[in-house]
Every structure is written in structure tokens, then in C-alpha cells.
Amino acid sequence: MKALPFTIPKHDSALLLFQRDRAEVFYEQFHQHEEIQISYIVSGEGELLAGDRMRRYKAGDTFIIGSYLPHLFKSDRSVTSESQMVSVFFSRVDFSRFMELDELSRMEALLNEMDVGIFMESSGDEVGEMILQIETASPLNRLALFFSLLECIRNANRSLLSSKLPRKMLSENEGMRMQVVMNFTLDSLANRISLEEVAGLANMSPNAFCRYFKQRTNKPFFQFLNELRIEHACTLLTNKVDLSVSEVAESSGFQNLSNFNRRFKTEKGITPSQFRRQNAR
Prior knowledge:
6-stranded antiparallel beta sheet; Jelly Rolls; Arc Repressor Mutant, subunit A
């Protein structure tokens, strides 16, 4: 999967960069960067597409986005008028010498997980407070807080954010090709999408696009599309209780209710109705 390259404006001598994003919506371009990103959602809801998977996010969640992991945040404007997250960026290369110390060697496995990406639902205020303290701490205290943050994450319940795919920084031209495809796909989940249409956006023949997409995601395009549609359906089942299951299916791009129920149960292990009963607000 391709994505626009993105440079984090970190001073060459700085080990950590603190960043606060506060706007109506988060950055909605499909992009990647060398630094590992630890982000705590202060306010707002929406969906995060990272690598080959999409996750719903809300206030209190923590995401760790691995080096060169392509991602974008798609804020849900219908839920809140403001989205805010605080983040710490760091380079694994910069911290490699610390990992040689016996006291920190146990963090190596966590850093390997971070490369794939980590999701921590409702991680609590502790992570957010640590990240906020990093903003104003002295350089030495920043390091101490950062290692405490890693220890907190290591001991927390967490799940992987994406599949483990080969990654590298890609050219802007390559990134723009899939940027167009991904934006179109996310904006058209409720519509019929033909292979010819999406291949045309990438300026490729259908057969060439199928090979191209699968080589970069380990998934055929329509498997990827259906997984995104199921995640979108989960969002609607949770937040739009006034919609019937058949309306959720149609709004998520499934024209056949039986097909939707079957695919949903295959992906989630329960039916849409059961999912709604367990998660509806």
C-alpha cells in the first residue's frame, strides 16, 4: 500500500517530539513517516485506517503507529465539533543504544510490536497525562517520563493495529497514486465500486491493479474493501441505533442482507444484531 511521505519537524538533536493536534478534524491524508507515533485521543471520534485495517477511535483510546506504517484519521463530524489528540514521536534508531542496557532489554519486544502498530482501547488518563507532561518537562525528565510511558504501555492490554507488512518510505508520485485510491474507497463505501473504476484511478489495467494492490497489502482489493465496510457497519451499529440492520447493511455497501450477515459473522464471530446489543450506546 502506498502513501504520501510525511516529514516530522523534529530537531536533529532531539530524541522526542511532542505534538498537539486540535481542529475540527484530524489530518485526513493517507501518509507515512519514519518516526513511531504514540497518540492519545483527548476528544473526538472517527476511524483510523492503518496499514490494511481500520479501527474506530474515541476519547481515551491510544494508538501507536509504527515506522512507515501508512495511515489516516477520518474524523466523524456528526459526533463532535472538535478533535484533539496529543502525540509523542520518536525514532527507533535513536533509542537503539538504550535497548542494549540490561534494564531496558525487555522493551525490545514492545518496540517490535510498535512497528506493526498497537491499539489500546479506553487506555485511561495515565497515558494521556504522561504524554502531556512530556511537553513541558526538562530534557532529562522527558526521557524518564518516556521510559515510564513505555513501561505503562508494556503492562497494558493491547492489540495489534495492522498486519505485519514490508515497509519503506515511498516516493511522492507513488504515494499519490494510492492516496487517490484510498480516499475514493473510504468516501464510497456505501456505493458500488467496480474494479475497472478503481483501477482507472490508479492509471492501471484491472489485472495490473489487482497484482499491484495484493503485493502491497497481502490482500485482494475486494477483501480489503469488504473488511472496511464491516468496520464501517460496526460504527453505524454502535452509534446509529435508529438505523435497522438492513439499513446499516445498505449504508455500508452491502446490497444483500444475507450476504452482509454472513460476512459480518465471519469477520466478527457474532451477528450484527448481537454486536449491536453488546456495543450500542
